[in-house]
Amino acid sequence: MNEGERKSFGIYLKELRVLAGLSLRKVEKATNKAVSNAYISQIESGKIETPSPHILDKLATVYGVPHREIMEAAGYIRRPSGEKKLATSGISFSLKQNLTNEEREEVVRFLEYLRFRKGKKKQ
Length: 123
Prior knowledge:
Layout: H1 3-19, H2 24-30, H3 37-45, H4 53-63, H5 67-74, H6 91-98, H7 101-122
């Protein structure tokens, strides 16, 4: 996986986390501390090149996406030629296919802002 793919995969994971409305610490707690928030942050930033399938399985469960989808995004599984990709995670897939990395990062930041603002209104 080259640097652009790592960053793209990291953005994809961050999209999943933000769309699930989870902070890094909440993901760590949801995995029973099997995946630390620092480790997730390093994956999202592209500093960790290839998280293990075991870690990705835990994240797929927490984010509510099919294991195959996250493994495919990480490059562990290749889709047979001619097989169409299913839009299983809604907005994440449409963002991944239609926006540049910079645009996707902006969307993720905006979603984080909206969730932050929503949380403040509840208080």
